[in-house]
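stage 2 :: seqdesign
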């Protein structure tokens, strides 16, 4: 299924996102984490790491960068003083909205290439593939909203 055209589309997606996020002082992973944190407004760092496709060490570096940029705050978890809770700042929330808009702009651009029927078929095939892979990796398929 992973073919040459998927690779090219992915390349254009990264290019599109970089062109729009760089002026905001963000990269793709920074924007991804920022959106996830904004979705929850307050989240345990371990929970955040569990919902990302990146290695924990990468996530730690991203969190540190977001802290330096004053887009998030990190406080000790009162239930486990070895853990942390991440919260979004007002500036971070504003930037997260800009990242989300950029994601929506990308989706609109991609969907313009297809008819309504083709978009519906594409969504159905993507969803079917996602459910199959979650099942293959023995993960709960019921958390579809976290996608």
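stage 2 :: out
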């Amino acid at each position: 299924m992973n073919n040459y055209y998927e690779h090219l589309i992915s390349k254009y997606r990264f290019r599109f996102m970089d062109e729009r996020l760089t002026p905001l002082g963000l990269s793709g992973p920074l924007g991804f984490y920022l959106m996830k944190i904004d979705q929850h407004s307050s989240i345990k760092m371990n929970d955040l790491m569990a919902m990302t496709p990146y290695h924990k060490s990468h996530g730690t570096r991203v969190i540190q960068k977001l802290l330096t940029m004053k887009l998030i705050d990190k406080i000790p978890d009162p239930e486990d003083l070895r853990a942390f809770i991440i919260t979004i700042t007002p500036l971070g929330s504003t930037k997260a909205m800009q990242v989300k808009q950029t994601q929506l702009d990308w989706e609109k651009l991609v969907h313009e290439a297809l008819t309504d029927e083709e978009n519906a078929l594409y969504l159905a095939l993507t969803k079917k593939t996602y459910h199959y892979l979650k099942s293959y990796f023995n993960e709960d398929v019921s958390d579809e909203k976290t996608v």
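stage 3 :: structure notes
- The first helix runs from residue 4 to 21.
- The CA atoms of residues 130 and 141 lie 9 Å apart.
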